[in-house]
Write a structure and sequence with these properties.
alpha+beta, Serine Threonine Protein Phosphatase 5, Tetratricopeptide repeat, seven-stranded antiparallel β-sheet, six-stranded mixed β-sheet, 66% helix, 8% strand
Length: 824
């Protein structure tokens, strides 16, 4: 047989089940006392090589000589395994798999491609093969076989996930269309896995976190380098990790559900043990984001517990709590409250009001009310939980600290930032006393303090706390951990709000990388960072990139949480922001309305997030020249804000601020001053005198009052005479230097005031403008930096211009013209 034929058959042939049975019997016969402990490598050295050494051939070649038609045929299953496995375990898994296939109606003979048999173990047949061979020929051979059998053990720390070769084989199977990947354990391992699902479901889900292909090893360093290069040049490590995790996730779910069905088949589905297993399987499903299926199994557990141990029992109450958690994760807050209330009644009756178990349910209820935007109810439940935890377990207890943190978050949401910070400080002190400053829970307190200071507008303090939190997480949990990613995301938010775009982008990218490697691309947490990155690209004027990122986030949220979920609605709002930036207000309004409908359906018409989107609608209608609709939207936002957050909240004040601007633009100075005064008072009280919102409100209020005073001194005046079809704003156009929103560098652009009262800028007079800013949306215009900068502020953004060498008009001319346009 020539070399080409040898190569072809080596990649396409397989060995029969009978040949494997004979090989196992030979091992048992020749090594009766040790064969059960021999690894694949041992079997190679002690049996395969001695038998093939004289002919310098592969074991399959010996089988061909004995009976080529009986023992060798076209491979139907590619076996992926680690050579450090016990060979008897591997062979038994293959034989069990073959038995399963034979039992099927269409069962065809099974021929395994098994490297121990197919490769010449007397020579390294794969040495010096080009990388292209592995990414094409080898991968195509697996696709032609059509099925990969992954022998996985030990299940707690599967060896194939640490071997570069195995990961590459798994990926070749997963990434080949039409190729089926089956995962199998030895019987003993399957039993252990079932016991783990019963006793500690987190041990099962933790297996996935450890999948990191870039940490895999190979016996031969050359092999590792070659495989790593193939991965990097191909799909990349993040995609490989995700593909393997998705396969393992599906396998874990399959094994968990199979454990339940096995008990049902044995007639044990009316037992307490069956209910316990259903509850644990539900928890696995919940961890993997399969909330609807989790609810199904929790309800099954509940029915059996009610029958076996009764309605008033701690196990029944625990299922009620878990049902509440799953419904809360689905965004179904009313159902969550219903189950938590049942759990609370149960625990009060069984455990008493002053028990930590009762406090836990009160805490969960507080979290749901917080998600619903009912912050007073949330605080009421958190306070009750804190008092109960303190009485049952003491003030200096982690549960007491955790509830203090929740109180801090709720008060922050209400706009009472000082109270929020005080609660977070209490939580921090408890954690420092109990666990020291190098513990993840202490880092969480740092993170919470950072968020509170961020809400208050003290960005440097917020950033300092986020950095402290990240340092502890990296030291205790490692860089590649979800908690570390969460803090990196928070740093991105803080730097973005502070105006340091490049730093923000860096931290968002760091968060994205960690999330992609730990929870995967399709996780809701990853979508959050995609959405944040989209917002930065939008601010930088890179609208197409922003749209791509927001659409990615929308797709992930839709698949993970469903279309009707508040987080999915957030992405529609973000997409609306991009179209608004592009001046496509009709499109942005359509997306804002879509987001609003989801918020109303999932959170209710009276919720802070509903108010927020009403505010966005108001800005879009205002920019679109639809003044009446804009005022209606702002009024609705303010009405919701008062109902949910109270009048003394920054979000409510922002609605007042926007209403004041609209009345100002239309000459109703009494109303304008009243609303702006109200906004300024709240901003100053909650955010402080130096916050940008407070300063903007103060500047506008002074300008409005000056306008009223000037008008009173001038007496009645005739309205300005405007030529029909023309703007009252004097035409002005020329070159200016415009500073990027986040980047400090300036770029030359053509700026003009058009006939429709818009400030327009773009690359040149001849090309379509990049942006048109309605003068009706301008909050303030001023000269700054000793007259070197012209600053034009609109809600959520400030445009900064500098003079250009060839400009005909001065910055003072531009400032005056824009002010006239704002008033006219």
């Amino acid at each position: 047989m020539d070399d080409d034929n040898n190569e072809q058959h080596r990649l396409t042939d397989g060995v029969s089940v009978e040949a494997f049975k004979t090989f196992l019997a030979d091992l048992q016969s020749e090594f009766p006392g040790t064969y059960t402990e021999m690894t694949t490598e041992d079997a190679c050295k002690q049996l395969v090589v001695p038998r093939t050494q004289q002919d310098n051939c592969a074991y399959v070649d010996l089988l061909r000589k004995q009976s080529s038609h009986e023992h060798v045929g076209k491979a139907t299953v590619f076996v992926s395994h680690a050579w450090r496995y016990k060979i008897a375990d591997v062979l038994n898994v293959l034989l069990e798999f073959a038995e399963e296939q034979a039992a099927k109606e269409d069962g065809q003979p099974v021929f395994f491609w098994f490297d121990l048999f197919m490769n010449n173990q007397n020579a390294n047949v794969t040495a010096n093969l080009p990388q292209e061979w592995w990414s094409t020929t080898f991968k195509e051979s697996i696709a032609n076989i059509g099925r990969v059998l992954l022998v996985l053990m030990p299940w707690r720390d599967p060896m194939p996930l640490t071997r570069a070769w195995c990961l590459w084989e798994i990926f070749c199977g997963i990434s080949s269309e039409g190729t089926e990947v089956n995962i199998r354990l030895p019987k003993s391992e399957e039993k252990e896995l079932e016991e783990a699902i019963r006793g500690n479901f987190e041990a099962v889900t933790d297996t996935l976190v450890r999948v990191q292909a870039e940490r895999a090893e190979a016996f031969n360093p050359y092999d590792k380098d070659m495989i790593f290069k193939a991965i990097q040049d191909g799909v990349g490590f993040a995609a490989l990790n995700q593909a393997v995790k998705d396969q393992l996730r599906a396998w874990c779910l399959e094994k968990a559900v199979a454990a339940v069905e096995a008990m049902r088949a044995r007639g044990e589905d009316e037992t307490e043990a069956f209910a316990e297993l259903c509850g644990q399987v539900a928890s696995v499903l919940d961890q993997f984001g399969e909330y609807a299926k989790a609810v199904e199994y929790y309800k099954l557990a509940k029915e059996i517990f009610v029958k076996t141990v009764g309605e008033r029992h701690p196990k029944t109450a625990s299922v009620y709590v878990n049902l509440g958690v799953s419904f809360d994760s689905m965004g179904n807050h009313d159902q969550a409250i219903e189950w938590y209330e049942k759990a609370k009644d149960n625990r009060v009756e069984v455990l008493g009001e002053k028990h930590a178990g009762t406090a836990q349910v009160l805490n969960n209820l507080g979290n749901v009310y917080d998600s619903k935007g009912e912050y007073d109810k949330a605080i009421e439940h958190f306070e009750a939980a804190r008092a109960t935890f303190a009485e049952a377990q003491g003030e200096m207890h982690p549960d007491t600290a955790s509830t203090c943190s929740n109180l801090g978050k709720a008060y922050s949401s209400k706009g009472d930032y000082d109270k929020a910070i005080a609660y977070h400080e209490t939580a921090k002190e408890i954690q420092l006393t109990l666990r020291g400053d190098k513990h993840p829970t202490t880092a969480e307190s740092f993170n919470n303090l950072g968020s509170a200071y961020l809400d208050k507008g003290e960005y440097d303090k917020a950033i300092d706390y986020f950095h402290r939190a990240r340092a502890v997480y990296v030291e205790t949990l490692g860089r590649m951990h979800q908690s570390t990613a969460h803090t990196c995301h928070n740093l991105g938010v803080a730097y973005r709000i502070k105006g340091e775009s490049e730093k923000a982008m860096g931290w968002y990218e760091e968060a994205k990388e960690i999330k992609m490697r730990t929870v995967g691309e399709t996780h809701a947490s990853t979508a959050q960072t995609w959405n944040a990155l989209g917002a930065i690209y939008n601010s930088n004027g890179e609208h197409d990139k922003a749209l791509a990122y927001h659409k990615m986030a929308n797709r992930i949220y839709t698949e993970a949480l469903g279309e009707k979920h508040p987080d999915t609605a957030d992405t529609y709002g973000s997409l609306g922001n991009v179209y608004s930036s592009k001046g496509q207000y009709d499109k942005s309004i359509e997306l804002y309305e879509k987001a609003r409908a989801i918020y109303v359906e999932t959170l209710g018409p009276v919720h802070p997030r509903t108010a927020e989107i009403q505010n966005s609608l108001g800005i879009a209608h205002s920019s679109n020249g639809e003044v009446t609709k804009a005022i209606e939207a702002f009024e609705k936002a303010r009405e919701i804000g008062v109902a949910t957050l109270g009048e003394e909240h920054p979000s409510t004040a922002m609605a007042s601020f926007n209403i004041g601007l609209l009345h100002d633009q239309h000459g109703d100075m009494e109303q304008a001053c009243a609303y702006m005064q109200q906004a300024h008072g709240v901003f100053a009280a909650t955010l402080g005198a130096d916050h940008p919102n407070t300063r903007a409100a103060q500047d506008n209020l002074q300008r409005m009052r000056q306008h009223v005073a000037d008008a009173a001194r001038a007496g009645p005046a005739a309205p300005p005479q405007v030529v029909p079809g023309h703007s009252s704003t004097p035409p002005l156009a020329g070159w200016l230097q415009k500073r990027g929103r986040w980047r400090r560098a300036c770029r030359t652009c053509w700026v003009s005031l058009d006939d429709e009262d818009h400030l327009v800028y773009g690359k040149s007079a001849e090309r379509p403008p990049k942006r048109r800013v309605p003068l009706s949306s301008v909050v303030s215009v001023e000269l700054a930096s000793a007259g070197q900068e012209l600053r034009v502020a609109v809600p959520g953004r400030t445009f900064v211009f500098r003079a250009h060498a060839s400009a005909g008009a001065t910055l003072e001319d531009w400032c005056a013209a824009i002010r006239r346009g704002m008033c006219g």
